[in-house]
C-alpha cells in the first residue's frame, strides 16, 4: 500500500497520540512492523524499548502494518507473529499491551489473539479495527461518472512483480488486450536487501519479495511458458514521479468502463483490501477484483456495493486459485468484446452503486479520526 502510506503514517501517529492521552500507560511506542522486516531490525527496536522501560511500568506498543503478513500453506497464523513473540521474549518485554491496526484486514481474529496472549508472557492483543484510509488525491474527484469519456472497455495498470499479476499480464498480452485497451504492464524486479544487510537471522516473511506461488493448472503453466512478459504503457497512463509514487495520475480509469483491480495478494487465507480497490471507486467505475477469495463478499459486509447486476461475480467465491484466476480471465475477455455502447449502458446501470461507494469513502475519510479516537478510547477503558 505504498501509495497511501503517507496518510496512513499520519493516522498511526494519531493512534499513538490518542493511546498516550488515555493516561492508561506510562510509555507508548510505535513500530512500523513491515519496515522492520525490510531492515531486519525488529529485535533492535524491541531492545530499545526494553532499555527505556522497566517491569513496573504499563507499556503499550502500536504494531502498524501496511503490507500483508505471510502464511505458510494451510497455516492459521502468519510467520510474523512467531518473530514478534520471540523478539519480545529475548528482550524480557512482558505484560505489554500490543495494539494492531486493522486496515480492512481480517487477520487479527480470535486465533491470533489467543496465540499472542498464550505465548507472550501476559501480553494482550488489541485490534484497532477501522476502515482503510483512502488517498487525499482520490477524494478530490467528481461524483459524476463522466460516461461520455468512455472510449475503451477495460482499464488495468500494475507492477508485474507478483506471480498473479504476471499471469494476468500474460493473459492480456496473449489476447492483444494490452494494445487495444487502457493497460500498463510495468515489469520490474524488486531487490529486497543490499549487500550491507545481514539476513542470516531473518525469517524470510516479507511477501513483497517472496514468489507467492501455488500449484498451477496446466493452462496457467502453458500461459506462463508460451507468452513472454513485456512492458507496455497506454498513452493516457502517466508514470509516477521517482520521488513521489502517490503523484501518479489515475484519470486514465475514466477512459474505460470497467477497471480491473489487481491487489497485493491473490492465493491467501485472509482478506487484505488495499487502496487499489478504492481507486476504481473514487473514479466512479465498476471493477473486477483480482485478489483473495471472498473479498467482494467481505467488502459488501463493510457497507460497499459491488456489481453483480452487470456481470458475473461468482469468481469471488471460487477458493481454488487456478479456477478463480481463469474465471476472472474469461470474464475480462468477455467484457472486452462488448461494443462500447453496451459498456456505457453497464456503467449507467451501475450509477446507484457507484455513487453509494464514492459517498461512503468520502464519509469515511471525513470522519476517520473521530472513528479512530472513539475506537481507541473504548478499547482502553
- The structure class reads alpha/beta
What is the average of the pLDDT values? 85
Q: Give the overall shape, derived from the CA principal axes.
A: globular
Count the beta strands.
Answer: 9
Biggest sheet: strands side by side, in what order? Answer: 7-6-5-8-9
Main beta sheet:
5 strands, mixed
Q: In percent, how much strand structure appears in the residues?
A: 5-15%
Ranges with pLDDT <50 over ≥5 residues? 1-5, 190-210
Tally of separate helices: 15
Relative helix content: 40-55%
Tell me the span between the first and last alpha carbons.
Answer: 31 Å
| H/E topology pattern | HEHHEHEHEHEHHEHEEHEHHHHH
- Computed over alpha carbons, the radius of gyration is 22 Å
Task: Give me some keywords for this one.
5-stranded mixed sheet; alpha/beta; disordered N terminus; globular; 381 residues; 4-stranded parallel sheet
Describe the structure concisely.
The protein has helices spanning 5-21, 33-39, 42-52, 79-90, 110-119, 136-139, 163-174, 177-180, 218-226, 275-282, 295-301, 321-336, 340-349, 351-366, 368-380, and strands spanning 27-32, 59-64, 96-103, 124-130, 152-159, 182-186, 232-233, 256-262, 287-290.
Amino acid at each position: 500500500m505504498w501509495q497511501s502510506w503517507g496518510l496512513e503514517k499520519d493516522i498511526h501517529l494519531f493512534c499513538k497520540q490518542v493511546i498516550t492521552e488515555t493516561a492508561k500507560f506510562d510509555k507508548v511506542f510505535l513500530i512500523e512492523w513491515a519496515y522492520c522486516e525490510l531492515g531486519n531490525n525488529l529485535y533492535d527496536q524491541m531492545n530499545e524499548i526494553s532499555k527505556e522501560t522497566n517491569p513496573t511500568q504499563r507499556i503499550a506498543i502500536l504494531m502498524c502494518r501496511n503490507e500483508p503478513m505471510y502464511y505458510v500453506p494451510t497455516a492459521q497464523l502468519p510467520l510474523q507473529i512467531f518473530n514478534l513473540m520471540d523478539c519480545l521474549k529475548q528482550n524480557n518485554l512482558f505484560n505489554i499491551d500490543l495494539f494492531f491496526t486493522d486496515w480492512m484486514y481480517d487477520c487479527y481474529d480470535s486465533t491470533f489473539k489467543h496465540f499472542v496472549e498464550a505465548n507472550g508472557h501476559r501480553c494482550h492483543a488489541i485490534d484497532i479495527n477501522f476502515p482503510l484510509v483512502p488517498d487525499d488525491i482520490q477524494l478530490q474527484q467528481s461524483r459524476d461518472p463522466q460516461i461520455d469519456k468512455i472510449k475503451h472497455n477495460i482499464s488495468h495498470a500494475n507492477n508485474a512483480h507478483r506471480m498473479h499479476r504476471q499471469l494476468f499480464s500474460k493473459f492480456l498480452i496473449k489476447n492483444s488486450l494490452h494494445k487495444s485497451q487502457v493497460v500498463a504492464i510495468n515489469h520490474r524486479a524488486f531487490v529486497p536487501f543490499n549487500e550491507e544487510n545481514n539476513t542470516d537471522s531473518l525469517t524470510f516473511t516479507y511477501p513483497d519479495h517472496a514468489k507467492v506461488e501455488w500449484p498451477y493448472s496446466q493452462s496457467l503453466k502453458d500461459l506462463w511458458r508460451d507468452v513472454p512478459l513485456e512492458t507496455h504503457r497506454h498513452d493516457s497512463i502517466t508514470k509516477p514521479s521517482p520521488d513521489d509514487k502517490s503523484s501518479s495520475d489515475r484519470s486514465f480509469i475514466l477512459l474505460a468502463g470497467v477497471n480491473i483491480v489487481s491487489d497485493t495478494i491473490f492465493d491467501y487465507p485472509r482478506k487484505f483490501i488495499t487502496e487499489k480497490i478504492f481507486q476504481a471507486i473514487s473514479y466512479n467505475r465498476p471493477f473486477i477484483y483480482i485478489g483473495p477469495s471472498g473479498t467482494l463478499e467481505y467488502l459488501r459486509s463493510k457497507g460497499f456495493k459491488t456489481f453483480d447486476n452487470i456481470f458475473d461475480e461468482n469468481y469471488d467465491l471460487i477458493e481454488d486459485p487456478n479456477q478463480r484466476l481463469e474465471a476472472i480471465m474469461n470474464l475480462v475477455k468477455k467484457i472486452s468484446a462488448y461494443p462500447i455502447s453496451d459498456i456505457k449502458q453497464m456503467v449507467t446501470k451501475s450509477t446507484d452503486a457507484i455513487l453509494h461507494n464514492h459517498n461512503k469513502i468520502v464519509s469515511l475519510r471525513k470522519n476517520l479520526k473521530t472513528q479512530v479516537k472513539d475506537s481507541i478510547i473504548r478499547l482502553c477503558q
